Amino acid sequence: MENVEEVKVRPRTINSRSSDRILEIVMYGIAGVLLILLIYPIYFIIIASFSDPAAVANGQVWLFPKGFTLAGYQELLKHENIWIGYRNTILYTVIGTAISLVVNLSAAYALSRRDLFGRKTISLFFIFTMFFNGGLIPTFLTIRDFHMYDTFLVMVLPFSVAVYNIIVARTFFQNSIPDDLWEAAQLDGCGNLRYYVQIVLPLSKAIISVIALWTAVGHWNSYFNALIYLKDADLYPLQLILRNILIMNQMQSAMGTGEAAAVALRLANIMRYSVIIVATVPIMCIYPFVQKYFNQGVMIGAVKQ
What we know:
mainly alpha, 2 domains, single chain, 14 helices
């Protein structure tokens, strides 16, 4: 009887393992295709920035650069205000991210405390602002009346509150920081501020890293606020300066005639790819340092309720 049972069970085990293997191969194949679809556009921009614009326009660039050239980068780096833009963008990103972390994490921790009076009402006020706001003109008038128009502060202070980040961080604090820690800290004479700084924040590296990355990328890529609220070119961030350079080169190619117009058009075309590389590579270098915290922070902060 035992031999008969073994004969009956073994084929099922083999079939089960075979189907699991087939499913695994299919899933890896789908994941590989998606990976290629996501990575190839970035790879194409890189090789196109080193290729002859004519080859790119004719569709001859697929896997490797054609007509290797550094003309796009050379023309781009001739503009000295790029370095001013880099300096401003780094300052806006570092200082703006620090301010946003202080504001959003503090608000999230306060809303996560069950002993906060009116916690639900305050949360509703925050959530209301996610769907309704005064609009561009009232915001502009408010910034002007607070004397922040065309100043450094307008890029780091007025838009530092992100309600979505507050909600994610609040959920993380509620589900990851046990109430017993607060009770134990109170027995040792620990106050709210000390408990938040010395106990809560060190235990929240995952969510801090995620929100810091989101905020830093937002500040690095921001150009609309600078376009609206800045008029001093010395305060322009990198994105706005690169935008102005592209517009200027396109206007020169449109206004030129003959061979000069053709050369200007080729430079304008290749500089589009060079601008993307110059603008994105620095912020992409930060991701590997926070990647290990990213999934953990997002899942704990956004999924659990």
